Structure prediction request, 221 residues.
Amino acid sequence: MPDAPDPLPPQDPPPQAAAAALAPAPGAALAAPGQGARDARVVSLASGRSIEIAEEGAEERIQIRAAAGQLLVSIRLTDEGPVLSLSGASLEIAAAKTLSLSCDTLRIQAAQDAAVEVGGSLHERVRGSVVREAGRSARTTAREVKVEASPGGVEIRANDDVDIVGERVRLNSEDPPMPLSWEEFRARQALAGRPVQPSALAAGEGAAPGEPDDRSPRGAR
Prediction:
């Protein structure tokens, strides 16, 4: 009996078959590396974006990725509650009535400018300390500005000049601005519930309260 022919040596698969074997399965690029998600279900959209639903241990997640694979929206359902992550060039949140944010720590970071516009009043309440730092200049503009420190003090420091410009600059005085007439002075005293001194009642009308006269409502200064 003739000897059986030697078996043919194994041949390498065609290049197309090798590339197909190394290519990831559909939807494999959607899973984050090292996560080991099980039972992942991927839905491909007509726009090229994909939606993935998977389980990771005790957590479930829903991810929306762009056609190139970038993560756009991620919703993770954990034992402590849902975790929502958004990523995009522009994000908009609109509420017809009320938008409330409640958390232990709030961090807002803007690489460039930031603007806050309030149509009504703005009320801030901070139970701790407030530190505001400006790299250049700071300006406060209002119809009326009040600064009060209780029970502590107020300290103003400047490396250059300090300018205080006003119609009247008063120190250690709680009196209202100087009245322009005796009638205005008496009306203010009556409105404040303070009795008018007899000298003011007997004062003549020749000198205005603001003039340097002994009959001025403030008396000698």
